[in-house]
Amino acid sequence: MQSTGLRNYPKPYWGGPAEHEPWPISEGVPRAVGEQVLLESERVGKESLFDQMTIAEFVRAKFLPEHVSTKRTSGRRHYQAILKHVLPPEEVDNIFGVDAVGSRAKLKVLANWPYMNNVRLVDAHPDHVQRLVSAALESGYSTQTAKHIRNVVSAIFTHAIKGRYFAGENPALPVTPPGMTRRVAHALTFEQTVRVLQVMRYPEMEMALLALLTGMNVAEICGLQWKHVNLSNHSVNRGGELIPPLTVIVRNQWYRGELSNVPSARRKNIPIPHLLQSMFLRLSRLTITGWNDFVLISRGGRPINQINVAARRLKSIGDALEMPWLSWQVFRRTRVSLIQEFGAQFQQKLATAMTMRLDSRPISVIPKGPRL
What we know:
By secondary structure, this protein is mostly helical. It folds into two domains: 55-162, no CATH class; 190-365, Intergrase catalytic core (hpI Integrase, Chain A). It is 45% helix and 6% strand. It has helices at 31-50, 55-66, 73-83, 89-95, 126-138, 143-162, 190-199, 204-214, 218-222, 274-287, 306-320, 328-342, 345-360, and strands spanning 229-230, 236-238, 241-243, 247-250, 252-255, 258-261, 268-271. The strands form three sheets. The protein has a three-stranded antiparallel β-sheet, with no helix packed on it. A two-stranded antiparallel ribbon has the order 2-3. Helix 8 (204-214) packs across helix 12 (328-342). The N and C termini lie far apart (83 Å).
């Protein structure tokens, strides 16, 4: 028997436990020493258990249930998307329980992509991560995406090191994140704002006005329900929550097909300016059938898909007006810029420019529904 190095203490009894079980502690062995022996045994046992495990197997067995599943919906979606550059997309769908046959995901397996799915956890090397980052950049992905790939691999090994499944330095750390070229933070002038709004139709005009006049982000706009809008001149109680007169309360968000609560820091009550009041009243006469209905709905009665509207409408409008950078974020930055320029007069100026446009727009573009 090999010496444990504890020459001054009684040897533990070896007759009971199997070899893979923790070492028993004999009487007379100081507690601290005994615990050290147990921890060492546990570490050795864990290493032997995981030394044959591939990165894909580790993601499935440990990283997904212990780390990814603790994140909010947006965080889980982010990991699922970026992992498809680390592991084959179909394998990621399988790990996340997504039906690959019915999945509409566009990313497919690339023959020469340096996936890390079959790399053993213990064999991972910075070169593996560097090849992933280089492949992403050479394939035309943005530096931000390449950085996300490197950070997700780093998160996998941070979790492995924390759980003592991997010994040594995180292989992603020596890989320098690619330098990022910051895009210009565009904002519209007042004249550009009016020009863009004048060529818009439902639902992008309503979404843009809400962003400009309330500062809500696009997920909050798509998740807005009628029960959170009070168009009356007195307070109302909806679902046990008192809503002040002429107020929108931000409580939910609609992101990637899922309704969820906004973080507590983003819960807010927003006064409804006159221009939005007119817009809400017009929409309520056409679309509302119950308080849980969404303010903005597609022709099929579903909440608006912000990604589809951006791809199909904002992009074409931006190209036509020589503003290829037009995005939902631009409207929120524009709000800040115009308030700094015009102060409290900003809302009135916009209302004056847009009232005739809203009143004259054909209602056929808005999905019709029975009135409440």
